[in-house]
Amino acid sequence: MEDIDKNNKYILEVKNITKKYGGVMALDNVSLSVKKGEVIAVVGDNGAGKSTLIKIISGVISKDSGEIFYNGKKAEINSPVDARKLGIETVYQDLALIDIFNIPYNIFVAREPVYENLYGKLTKTFNYKKMLKETVNLFNKYNIKITELDKPLFNYSGGQRQAVALTRAAYWGSELIILDEPTAALGVKESGNALELIKTLHDHGMTIIVISHNLQHIFTVVDRIFVLRQGKEVGIKNIHETNFDEIVGMITGSKVIEKV
């Protein structure tokens, strides 16, 4: 990665990102800067380009043109592995959890620690005691009230599963978490718990990008709102300088607001 500014206040900058699918322009010269330690929402109607932008940042798809900078350095993100190496973790709507595994195994899936002795290294024997201990510490840190950790994941509620996915991202994503519709499949109580967990992650210094259609939820947890419409950036607003109606107007096209 190429240094540009070691004192940059932004953890992530995407500049002039363009992505085209055949004759459809999914993203048209889109730029977004995410401040360190903030929660920012990316909103827009269906087809606005939200998912495309997030998938480019997380390395799932490649951009056609534009640049990405991470912690003031130019970054090449060509795969999810590249994103994770930078400290970017993404939680999609399906959560990417394995129902037949218990919670510690889901926290560490595909990254399981092995015993550090010779036998463990030769046989690749997983160190379950370490996974369990780390999971307990993780849940204590973020005030997750799940006491039984050893049951297969299908025994837990949607909100509990969401908590597992979010805390897993926090454990592995050292700096930036992307959440794709984090409350879409949850009831009222569980949505409230998920929003409280987002606030807790924020309080611990995590930078979070939230993609959501639920503006009421967004207004309770984010610092700024970035609006896309038909693949183009409409504007970005500080949460304390806007309101529900203005954001709806930006999404629908009745208002155009300059970035701040």
Would you kindly provide a brief summary of this structure?
This protein is globular.
**CATH topology-level fold name:** Rossmann fold
In CATH, what is the homologous superfamily? P-loop containing nucleotide triphosphate hydrolases
Rg on CA atoms, Å: 19 Å
Total discrete domains: 1
CATH architecture group name = 3-Layer(aba) Sandwich
Mean pLDDT: 90
Total of DSSP H or I helical runs spanning 4+ residues: 9
Main β-sheet, spatial strand arrangement = 7-8-9-4-10-11
H-E string: EEEEHEEHEHHHHEHEHEEH
Q: Ranges with pLDDT <50 over ≥5 residues?
A: 1-6
Biggest sheet overview? 6 strands, mixed
What key attributes describe this structure?
single chain; 260 residues; alpha/beta; Rossmann fold; six-stranded mixed sheet; five-stranded antiparallel sheet; disordered N terminus
Give the helix/strand layout.
Layout (H helix, E strand, L loop, with lengths): L1 E2 L6 E12 L2 E12 L3 E5 L6 H8 L7 E6 L2 E3 L4 H7 L1 E4 L11 H6 L9 H6 L4 H14 L16 H15 L3 E5 L7 H16 L3 E5 L3 H7 L2 E6 L2 E7 L5 H9 L8
Helix pairs in contact: 6-7
